[in-house]
Design goal:
The chain is α+β, with helices and mostly antiparallel strands. It has two domains: about 110 residues, Alpha-Beta Plaits; about 70 residues, no CATH class. It is built from seven helices and six strands.
């Protein structure tokens, strides 16, 4: 699979677990084990865990990324996952809530509110967070490429340099910064 195909087929799995009162420590220990197990599966690109509250209980939202729907399905159907989910079921208030998302807008996935409904963050808040991520990258990434452009003049042309800089920014935004920044700003983003 080429890198172009890999980035074109990324699929996300959203897992939401509301943990019963007093079971947070046991859940955290289970979470460490399932994360380690998921990482060993083909196509696994990473996982982000967000902690919040819903209806008075701790809510864990996990975003797992896989390179394709088939590889994600292999994880979902695996004996390892079935065994681990069965093990955690007694700790969960609502069972194992999963959602497969094939589009790329997983950064601003709504968090269920106290009444159980889900409302996405206001668009202006999404724009502010996106701006805070992209502005420093659009200023810094060209400076990082500058020494290479000086050594390899064929890369310093308008088209080649634009492609390299844009690709660098997009990959950094998608795989490094947005998952972390949205987790950092989650309380503000989800505030009514």
């Amino acid at each position: 699979m080429s890198s172009v195909e890999l980035f074109d087929e990324v699929v996300t799995l959203l897992v939401r677990h509301r943990v019963k009162a007093g079971q947070d420590a046991a859940y955290e220990e289970w979470l460490r084990r399932i994360i380690g197990t998921a990482r060993s599966y083909a196509g696994h690109l990473g996982i982000d865990v967000m902690r919040g509250h819903s209806q008075g209980l701790t809510l864990f939202t996990c975003v797992l990324r896989f390179t394709s729907t088939d590889l994600l399905q292999a994880w979902l159907d695996s004996d390892d996952r079935h065994r681990l989910v069965a093990e955690v079921e007694p700790l969960l208030a609502d069972g194992d809530q999963t959602e497969i998302n094939a589009d790329r807008e997983f950064w601003f996935t709504p968090t269920p509110l106290e009444n159980g409904s889900a409302k996405p963050p206001a668009r202006w808040k999404q724009a502010c967070v996106t701006f805070l991520v992209i502005l420093p990258l659009s200023m810094g990434v060209p400076l990082l490429w500058k020494p290479l452009f000086a050594q390899l003049p064929f890369l310093s042309g308008y088209l080649a340099s634009s492609v390299l800089i844009t690709l660098s920014i997009v990959l950094l935004v998608v795989y490094v910064f947005m998952p972390r920044v949205t987790r950092l700003f989650a309380p503000w983003l989800n505030k009514a």
